[in-house]
């Protein structure tokens, strides 16, 4: 069992200079373009005494706003109201982001302090959206870097031949019925409900 950083480092060579030097403290033109092209981000958050959380967020490309090279604004779209990410941000004030672009194997990582903003000047960044968010996650860019393509290449995530037919798994309604005993909602009913809430 590996229980120390020293023991861990004995298994791996030191990172290459490029892997270290690519980390930036602000968004450059490439990072900004990546975010503006991305329709999907995974938010990582956590707090003392709680498990870490990873939460997907999505929208049209550009749904995450970039007011300047040190700031990102993420609208909090309607979800399940568990508020795991939001309560973690209140508790820790930290966040990690992983941006994806369909068809692109590289990803973009951003880490930094985060705050929940409900002031009108923050919400107005999203005035053109179908629904104005209740709040915005403001992220201060502290670390940002492009992540290599190996994981997505290994998974063949964007390869059409890797696509799994939805019928391979039971519907979400069936899985939740089995897990919780709740009334069964068909896949069609769930999709209709989600579409009305988007």
Notes on the structure:
With 198 residues, this protein is α+β, with helices and mostly antiparallel strands. The protein has two domains: 138 residues, Pnp Oxidase, Chain A (Roll), CATH 2.30.110; 34 residues, no CATH class. 30% of the residues lie in helices and 25% in strands. It contains eight helices and eight strands; from the N terminus they run H-H-H-E-E-E-E-H-E-E-H-E-E-H-H-H. Strands 1, 2, 3, 4, 5, 6, 7 and 8 form an eight-stranded antiparallel sheet that branches. A hairpin with a 2-residue loop joins strand 3 and strand 4. The longest helix is centred in the C-terminal third of the chain and has 11 residues.
What distance separates the N and C termini? 46 Å
What is the element string, with H for helices and E for strands?
HHHEEEEHEEHEEHHH
- Structural class, judged by helices and strands? alpha+beta
- How would you characterize the largest beta sheet? 8 strands, antiparallel
Please report which band the strand proportion falls in: under 5%, 5-15%, 15-25%, 25-35%, 35-45% or over 45%: 15-25%
* Coarse morphology: globular
């Amino acid at each position: 069992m590996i229980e120390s950083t020293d023991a861990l480092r004995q298994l791996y060579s030191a990172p290459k200079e490029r892997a270290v030097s690519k980390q930036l403290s602000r968004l450059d033109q490439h990072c900004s373009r990546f975010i503006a092209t991305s329709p999907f981000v995974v938010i990582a958050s956590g707090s003392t005494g709680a498990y870490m959380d990873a939460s997907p967020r999505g929208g049209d490309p550009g749904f995450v706003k970039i007011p300047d090279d040190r700031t990102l604004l993420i609208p909090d779209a309607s979800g399940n109201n568990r508020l795991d990410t939001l309560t973690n941000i209140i508790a820790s004030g930290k966040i990690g982001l992983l941006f994806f672009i369909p068809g692109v194997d590289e990803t973009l990582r951003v880490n930094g302090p985060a705050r929940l903003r409900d002031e009108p000047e923050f919400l107005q960044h999203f005035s053109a959206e179908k629904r104005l968010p209740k709040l915005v996650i403001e992220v201060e860019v502290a670390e940002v870097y492009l992540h290599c393509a190996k994981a997505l290449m290994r998974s063949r995530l964007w390869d059409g031949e890797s696509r799994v037919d939805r019928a391979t798994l039971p519907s979400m309604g069936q899985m939740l019925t089995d897990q919780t005993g709740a009334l069964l909602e068909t896949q069609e009913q769930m999709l209709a409900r989600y579409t009305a809430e988007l």
